[in-house]
């Protein structure tokens, strides 16, 4: 098995997340993509994040039409901060040692990877796929130098469809009373309206 992992706060999940996941699945011939909403991301401890139940439900709704997409609440159900290393260890126990794990992140997040919790141990336990945008050059030399020979084997770069959407902008538009149609799946838009999300800070 080759399993892709899409982690993040998904506040809210949008079409950019979905397009990236599907593109990476095809390019790397992954058997499935597992979306894992973060409960308490270490880098967002001081930030306001929408309650977990809403982010989890929006992720379920957004992915239900793709049989290759699955959703796990494992980080939400686990106590403490959402460290990726703990998630990878749990997934290895679930799927078995023969399954290869591929953690999908944006190019910007890859630049911060050396600062992640026990990052050298983490990169030995799973692959990382950095999704870059067309015609955008990113210098990964510092990351490659930090991880050394492991980077050649475990860190991959791939160009995915250039869909410029951000969750921050979606939240801003909702608060301003602007349309978010074609930025999120219709079912997610309907959920945001029904639950009155993002109307205030």
Quick recap:
By secondary structure, the protein is α/β, with parallel strands linked by helices. The chain is 43% helix and 17% strand.
Explain this structure to me?
By secondary structure, the chain is α/β, with parallel strands linked by helices. It has helices spanning 15-27, 52-63, 74-77, 84-95, 107-112, 119-125, 141-147, 149-154, 167-175, 186-195, and strands spanning 2-8, 32-37, 69-71, 100-106, 127-132, 155-159. The protein has a single domain, classed as HUPs (Rossmann fold). It is built from 10 helices and 6 strands. A 6-stranded parallel β-sheet has the order 3-2-1-4-5-6, with helices on both faces. The longest helix is centred in the first third of the chain and has 13 residues, at 15-27. The N and C termini lie far apart (42 Å).
Keywords:
single chain; 201 residues; alpha/beta; 6-stranded parallel beta sheet; 6 strands
Question: Layout of helices and strands, plus pairs?
Answer:
Elements: E1 2-8, H1 15-27, E2 32-37, H2 52-63, E3 69-71, H3 74-77, H4 84-95, E4 100-106, H5 107-112, H6 119-125, E5 127-132, H7 141-147, H8 149-154, E6 155-159, H9 167-175, H10 186-195
Parallel strand pairs: 1-2, 1-4, 2-3, 4-5, 5-6
Helix pairs in contact: 2-10, 4-6
């Amino acid at each position: 098995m080759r399993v892709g992992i899409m982690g993040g706060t998904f506040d809210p999940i949008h079409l950019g997340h979905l397009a990236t996941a599907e593109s990476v699945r095809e390019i790397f011939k992954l058997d499935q993509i597992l979306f894992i909403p973060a409960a308490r991301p270490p880098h967002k401890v001081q930030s306001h994040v929408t309650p977990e139940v809403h982010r989890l439900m929006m992720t379920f709704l957004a992915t239900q039409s793709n049989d290759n997409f699955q959703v796990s609440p494992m980080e939400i159900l686990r106590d403490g901060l959402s460290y990726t290393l703990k998630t990878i260890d749990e997934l290895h126990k679930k799927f078995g040692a023969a399954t290869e794990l591929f953690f999908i992140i944006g190019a910007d997040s890859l630049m911060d990877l050396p600062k992640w919790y026990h990052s050298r141990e983490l990169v030995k336990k799973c692959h990382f796929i950095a999704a870059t945008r067309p015609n955008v050059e990113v210098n990964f030399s510092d990351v490659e130098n930090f991880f050394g020979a492991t980077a050649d084997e475990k860190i991959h770069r791939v160009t995915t469809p250039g869909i410029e959407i951000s969750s921050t902008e979606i939240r801003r538009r909702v608060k301003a009373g602007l349309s978010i149609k074609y930025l999120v799946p219709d079912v997610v838009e309907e959920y945001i309206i029904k639950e009155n999300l993002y109307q205030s800070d």
